[in-house]
Design a protein that fits this description.
The protein has 6 helices and no strands. By secondary structure, the protein is mostly helical. The protein has one domain. Helix 3 packs antiparallel against helix 4 and helix 4 packs parallel to helix 6. The termini are far apart.
Length: 152
C-alpha cells in the first residue's frame, strides 16, 4: 500500500514539474525597447560577460524579426537580421577562455540557429539570402563557442 502512495506522489510531483521544465526560450516576446536596453548593457558589460549578453541579444533580435515577418513588416525584420549578423561577429571577437556562462551562450546560439532555419523556410523568397547569411554567421559563432566550451 505504501509503495502505491509513494508511486502516486511521485507521478503527481513529476506532472506538476513538467510545465516548469517545458517552458521554452521563446516564452517572452522581446520588443524594441528590451533589445535596445540589452544592447546597451552588452556594450557596457565586462569582457567576461559580453559573449553571453551578445548571444542573448542576437536571440532576442531573431525572435523579434520572426514576429516582424509574421506581422508583414519585412523592412524592420531585414534590418534586425542585418544587425544580428554584426552582433554574431562580435560574439566571435569576444570569445575567450574565461567567459562567464559560455555553455549557456552556446545553447542559446544553437536555439537561435534553429529558429533561423525555421525562418528560412517561411520567409519571402527575396529575403532568403539574408536569412541564410545570418544563419551562417550564427552557426559559426555557435561552433566557435562550442569549441571553446570543450577546450576547457
Amino acid at each position: 500500500m505504501r509503495s502505491h502512495i509513494k508511486s502516486a506522489l511521485f507521478v503527481v510531483s513529476v506532472a506538476l514539474a513538467l510545465p516548469a521544465c517545458a517552458s521554452s526560450l521563446d516564452d517572452k516576446t522581446p520588443d524594441q525597447q528590451t533589445i535596445n536596453a540589452l544592447e546597451l548593457r552588452a556594450n557596457q558589460a565586462q569582457p567576461r560577460e559580453q559573449c553571453f549578453l551578445y548571444a542573448e541579444l542576437v536571440h532576442q533580435m531573431i525572435e523579434f524579426s520572426v514576429r516582424q515577418y509574421a506581422d508583414g513588416n519585412t523592412d524592420k525584420a531585414t534590418g534586425l537580421l542585418k544587425h544580428a549578423q554584426e552582433l554574431a561577429h562580435k560574439i566571435h571577437l569576444t570569445l575567450s577562455e574565461d567567459n562567464k556562462r559560455l555553455k549557456n551562450a552556446q545553447i542559446l546560439l544553437r536555439h537561435t540557429a534553429f529558429r533561423l532555419t525555421e525562418l528560412l523556410h517561411s520567409s519571402p523568397f527575396e529575403d532568403r539570402p539574408l536569412v541564410q547569411q545570418t544563419l551562417s554567421e550564427v552557426n559559426q559563432a555557435q561552433t566557435e563557442a562550442m569549441m571553446q566550451v570543450f577546450k576547457k
